[in-house]
Amino acid sequence: MTVYVKGVVFDGVDFDDPNSWNIDAYIQRGGYAALKKIIAEGISQDAIIAELKTSSLRGRGGAGFPTGLKWSFMPRSFPGQKYLVCNTDEGEPGTFKDLDIIVNNPHALIEGMIIGGYAMGISVGYNYIHGEVFAAYERFEAALEEARRAGFLGDKILGSDFSFQLHAHHGYGAYICGEETALLESLEGKKGQPRFKPPFPASFGLYGKPTTINNTETFASVPYIIREGGQKFLELGKPNNGGTKLFSVSGHVNRPGNFEIPLGTPFSELLEMAGGMRGGKKLKAVIPGGSSAPVLPGHIMMETTMDYDAIAKAGSMLGSGAVIVMDETVCMVKALRRLSYFYYEESCGQCTPCREGTGWLYRVVDRIERGLGRPEDLELLESVGKNIAGRTICALGDAAVMPVQGMLKHFRDEFLHHIEHKKCIVPGY
Amino acid sequence: MLEIEIDGTKLTVPNGTTVIEAARSIGTHIPHFCYHKKLSIAANCRMCLVQVEKAPKPLPACATPVNDGMKVFTHSDMAVKAQQGVMEFLLINHPLDCPICDQGGECQLQDLAVGYGASSSRYEEEKRVVPNKDLGPLISTDMTRCIHCTRCVRFTEEVAGMQEIGMAGRGEHSEIMSFIGMTVDSEISGNVIDLCPVGALTSKPFRYTARTWELSRRKSVSPHDGLGSNLVVQVKSDRVMRVLPLENEAINECWIADRDRFSYEALNSEQRLTKPMLKQGGQWIETDWQTALEYVGNGLKSISNEFGAQSLAVLATPHSSVEELFLLNKLSTALGAGAASFGTRYADARLAPAQQGASWLGQPIADIAAAKAVLLIGSTVRKEQPLLAQRLRQAVKRGLKLSLINPMDDELFTTVSNKLIVRPDQLVEALAGVVKAAAELKQQAVPAELANAVVSDAARAIAEQLLAATANEGDRAALLLGNLAAHSPRAAEIASLAAQLAELTGATLGWMSEAANTVGAQVLGLQASNALTQSCKAVLLFNTELEFDSHDAQAALAVAKQAEMVVAFSAFKHGALDYADVLLPITPFSETAGSFINMEGKLQAFNGVVKPLGDSRPGWKVLRVLGNLLGLEGFDFDNAEAVRKAALPQGEAGIAAKLSNAVQGVSIQLQAPSAGLVRLGEVPIYQADALVRRAPSLQKTRDAVAPQVGLSAATAQQLGVQAGERVQVSQGDAHASFQVALDAGLADGVVRLAVAHPDTVVLGAMFAPIQLTRA
């Protein structure tokens, strides 16, 4: 189920039309106009990056880094090969927006990447697509072929001197391959393990060459910004939080799905769009930005707007925009146990704190859930978490710790109850 | 240069220095496991986390480059808490089985746990158990102890050249392992035992035999290849228990080859000869030294009287020490037999007279890595010189261009720029092509002898590369000759052409000396020629095993069998039981003082690390007594130092004066390739000397498998034989049967079949014609 209110990424897409994804439909709703304009008017690289900066577009993969700034890091005069990489690995639990983009509007992504290649002087791009999606991968390959045949992709695009090759790459389903340097390793054919940074991909990326990596949704927002102007995009949202954002709403709502809404929309409105709470139950908690984001109690969420700054202020993060809604029937210990199990299983094993610590966290939470917890376990969890966070090669360590910290911050009573009474505070569990 | 401060101490370090290196330079130790100065930075153990001013989080010292003005705190609260946190993680799944672990007492984890670990664990869950892996006969595994530092992984990939170990699986389920069904077969694999900071990878032969604190450590020098690797020999109860590297950046860096590490097993072998033995009435009897030496003395005198002194041949292997070779040569000369020979594997009688000095590497070992281009000529370099091959591999990564002229195209695990792969009897013609190309490129007259040389594209590319490498002032190139060149029946022509090429291109010419004391033997005046002829009536064999140490085993054995008296000085009972009359038990390198001169001309002395086994005696002492018994002058020495002083009166300077790779008076006669099959008979790595032949663990490695007949696919097809089929090979009247293996790196017409192996000793010469028929 996908709904857009003021669409950027899904601007004009008709979700009821099975052909709405294809190049003719895309062109009809204004697609590739941005690229044509750039080529025809010879818009400079600097002007494109300036437009992105005006738009205040921030990375949609989770970290929210300003895209214009990232593009300006690329050494444009670098003499050798450079690469542009799109991260469609989308492994964050709760997130299913990028899949929707490559299925329903793949050309927005393709056009965005071509513009990125133009703006940074890059001639080769890759789209790394999550391992377990097959039809979506084929859809994207079909769209690439359409773009090539139409002359938007390949050698001498639209008769200009600019050439750009774009290839799809199918991953194998490891969560860690969504981390940009692990993704690069995987793309090179190696085991997907994050690299130590610095050097950052902008100087030492794919095959050791300067590389820019962005999320699918980020690239798919670019054509709109060029076509309509950065200012217009910015005004869709709010200052420093420009544009619209896709939110993947899941959990105990009546109408789970993707919702493209302006940044700054109150959470209560988003919940309304998602059909409200299932079975009329009470909202208990929300994980607002994918499983790595700290959980927030429902009452805090109901007073929060959906944008980077507001959610950070509330004590969590917007992340990838995966909104996991939990009603009053959820046992938070059990929920955390599942989350911790995920990080325990998905740690790449490279560095010590994450390899050893994620298993420890999981085992302690599991023990509490099974009624074998001890009073000192909560301090132990916090202490182990502290020893992981900030001490690992990549952010997976932090991601594993944040759910634990969020749960213990807001729902400590439930954990204590489990330890004391060896059963759940929530009836029925 | 950058100015920084570590724990309040100001220092200046070059750009690009990491925090851990900077700290080390002022003697500050930062705890670490995955960091190793010779390996790439992994930053995965996180033990070296330190506090850096203005950084919100602790940073890994191994991977953090120093910035100007940086202030580092290695013992601050933040740093110590981070280090303690990591130590706790490392220990939660570690079995803590130190009492039964071979690494106990020399374990980095154990040491650092004392400093950073807690006295009891907060972890009360189940611990991880990891199945052990079969990494081959040399490396034992206890993978539950592994802390995933990946030093072993990086070593195999970066130093040994092929990633034979990897980390499979994810997260807590990650396991260090070899490829499925494969072992670790590198010729320098044992170094992962030293690299492993815990007891996950330990020495299989040494397993459960001693604790580190029971061992005394004694310095020594490897008696195998010409590198002269520095060793620490560890001894308990007068027995060598294991061998480890002694770091010497100029020679072996911090590595040793597997044969340096594991050949000690032979020192305690049951094949050791521990009493003098005489053959009487076809039966071997043990006797005392007096009787044995008198027998030898009388025999030498009577044969000399009857057949003349020229009927005496004195042969030694270049694995013998300076002191032994000096006295042996003195004895040979004093008996009127002329200089002793160390050249039983040599086949070109023109070589020794043409050489103008002791052939050597031509440069310090460490300089090779600084060359811009290297041309290897006639060498199975990984097997002949495992650590030199490793140095070349590192140098190629830094830009050295490596080229080859070889009779086989074995995997070197590095990038080879150009190569000429030819029949072993065509090495001269291939090299001549490069010389001619270099002369043409330099617009110099091509020597008349080389007028007909064929210049292939590869030959021209090699010449161009050598010239380009030396074009700039201060830039260097090197030509390195290996054992296959030295043992070639056309070695003199190869040496002469190599010298011409060096002259034309400005490259340095060097020989990668075969054995620990090949240079020493030449400096002392021993001859690099085969002294065995049908007129020999008395043969003294010093460490030499004719069947394994000869260019043509059958020809050598035929001489020995017709001789009146064969005396074998040996540490082992060997094939001489068949053809000798006297066996004199001399000690291996570990039981006597001595010295070797390595390929770069460096004299390295060593002391005995254990007492001589049984009645065996140091070779130099035996020769001293024999000299005195024969009434010869100048055999009175009190100790090995005195012998060394007499052998090398001018010391290092005297050695340097004798080193030269110049060759004179060799005429080159280019030959058209023969139509027949030719043998390529290299000496296998673990058959090269008496010790490795008797080291059981080395004999279980893949490098020690029974020889097969290697053929190119085209040759196999022409002969109508297939891979895996048994074929009969013949040299002269000798026959043996072997399995065929296809070898894509061989020129057509080449039959690759190792020499010096029990299965092949019945055959003939290394590079001679050979016949092959279907069995």
UniProtKB/TrEMBL annotation, chain A:
Keywords, comma-separated and alphabetical: 4Fe-4S, Flavoprotein, FMN, Iron, Iron-sulfur, Metal-binding, NAD, Quinone, Translocase
GO molecular function ontology, one term from the record: NADH dehydrogenase (ubiquinone) activity
Iron-sulfur in keyword set: yes
Catalytic activity, as annotated: a quinone + NADH + 5 H(+)(in) = a quinol + NAD(+) + 4 H(+)(out)
A Pfam entry, by short name: NADH_4Fe-4S
Required cofactor names: FMN; [4Fe-4S] cluster
Domain named NADH-ubiquinone oxidoreductase 51kDa subunit iron-sulphur binding: residues: 333-378
EC number: 7.1.1.-
Classification via InterPro entries: NADH-UbQ_OxRdtase_51kDa_CS, NADH-UbQ_OxRdtase_suF, Nuo51_FMN-bd, Nuo51_FMN-bd_sf, Nuop51_4Fe4S-bd, Nuop51_4Fe4S-bd_sf, Soluble_ligand-bd
Highest taxon of source: Bacteria
Secretion signal span: none
Keyword match Lipid biosynthesis: no
NCBIfam families, sorted: nuoF_fam, PRK13596.1
Its job: NDH-1 shuttles electrons from NADH, via FMN and iron-sulfur (Fe-S) centers, to quinones in the respiratory chain.
Similarity comment: family membership: Belongs to the complex I 51 kDa subunit family.
UniProt-recorded name of the protein: NADH-quinone oxidoreductase subunit F
Lineage of the organism: Bacteria, Pseudomonadati, Pseudomonadota, Betaproteobacteria, Neisseriales
TrEMBL record, chain B:
Alphabetically ordered keywords of this record: 2Fe-2S, 4Fe-4S, Iron, Iron-sulfur, Metal-binding, NAD, Quinone, Translocase
Record-linked PROSITE patterns: 2FE2S_FER_2 (PS51085), 4FE4S_HC3 (PS51839), 4FE4S_MOW_BIS_MGD (PS51669), COMPLEX1_75K_1 (PS00641), COMPLEX1_75K_2 (PS00642), COMPLEX1_75K_3 (PS00643)
Enzyme class at the top of the EC tree: translocase
Family annotation (InterPro entries): 2Fe-2S_ferredoxin-like_sf, 2Fe-2S_ferredoxin-type, Mopterin_OxRdtase, Mopterin_OxRdtase_4Fe-4S_dom, NADH_UbQ_OxRdtase_75kDa_su_CS, NADH_UbQ_OxRdtase_ferredoxin, NADH_UbQ_OxRdtase_Gsu, NADH_UbQ_OxRdtase_Gsu_4Fe4S-bd
Cofactor: [4Fe-4S] cluster; [2Fe-2S] cluster
Domain 2Fe-2S ferredoxin-type as annotated: residue spans: 1-78
Coiled coil segments of this chain: none
UniProt cross-references to Pfam families, sorted A to Z: Fer2_4, Fer4_NDSU1, Fer4_Nqo3, Molybdopterin, NADH-G_4Fe-4S_3
EC id: 7.1.1.-
Protein name: NADH-quinone oxidoreductase
Species of provenance: Chitinimonas taiwanensis DSM 18899
